[in-house]
Amino acid sequence: MRPLLKLQTFDGTGSLDTFLNKFHRITKYLRWDEEDEFNHLCASLEGVAGQVLWDLDPRANTQDLVRLVQTRFGTKLHAERFKAELHTRRRAPGEPLQTLYQDIRRLVSLAYPVPDHN
Hints:
Elements: H1 16-29, H2 34-44, H3 47-50, H4 62-73, H5 79-88, H6 97-111
Helix pairs in contact: 5-6
């Protein structure tokens, strides 16, 4: 018997790419069928991210839901904003170098997303 893994929630504030990567890995590991994938994904969306369910067609599947969430919260359409943030990012007074480094790494990955090769 496979150990129980819990899919974390997504509320629109964290990294959508990280969330979806974890989601796809869990679905593969637990061998979920389409209905399981769809329902677990719906249940994992909270707050403003959960509001995308209001606009979901009743015949929608997992791929439709993923596309809708990517449109609203994905980084591909927001890359220019992250590039501008990266360009203007400066170390705040008293900010540790490690914090600056981590934020710059985050902004670089959001501003220059790696193409999806699935």
